[in-house]
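quick one: ribulose-5-phosphate bound model?
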Amino acid sequence: MTQNELKQAVAQAALDTVRPKLERDTILGIGTGSTANMFIDSLAGVKQLFDGAVASSEASADRLKGHGIPVYDLNSVNSIQIYIDGADESNSALELIKGGGAALTREKIIAAASDQFICIADESKLVPRLGAFPLPVEVIPMARSYVARELVKLGGDPVYRSGVVTDNGNLILDVHNLDISVAITLEEQINNITGVVCNGLFAVRPADLLLISTPNGVQEFHRPR
Ligand code: 5RP
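yep, here:
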């Protein structure tokens, strides 16, 4: 199977998981990226079964609206029942690296505000240890060089993602070679650097359910309690 076929299969598995839980007033959180796009497209067929969605990017909002799925501002909804999104890496504790698509801050806000977070990915994303994928960090533009120097002190090699401006008007540093053996601690350390808006470690709020697509089917991993 190609990677696209694996992503398609996991998007369908996510729909199969979510569909029985949909009610007229259900608000879904919807992520960003190619896997999330496939989920959005499959969601179009059941749009009459739920109320609408909160999107983690302008691109996903546009795609949802294109299917006639109502898109809400997070401030106008009381709660999000289920958030579905991809990831760049996951470990077996369902701690993630996200932000390859530069949508990490809105993704983290939606994850925090959601009752359940379902992460969907192909098997290449499940890793024994986080960090081969460079960690995206969203920074306020004027703080870019200062934050980069602080990230070097944490052992990382930050690279400015040239030409990318986030939906929030900020910049991205991709940090290589970090030691992510204790993800929660590093997530908090990076968030404490003045000028950092958010970093792509999802360890304080990991996924609750991880669906991993393999040529032999989709495997389920539940967050250890
Ligand atoms: C966007 C993300 C995506 O979930 C992540 O980059 C995975 O993308 P894809 O499904 O295209 O592999 O975090 O900010």
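The first helix runs from residue 3 to 18.
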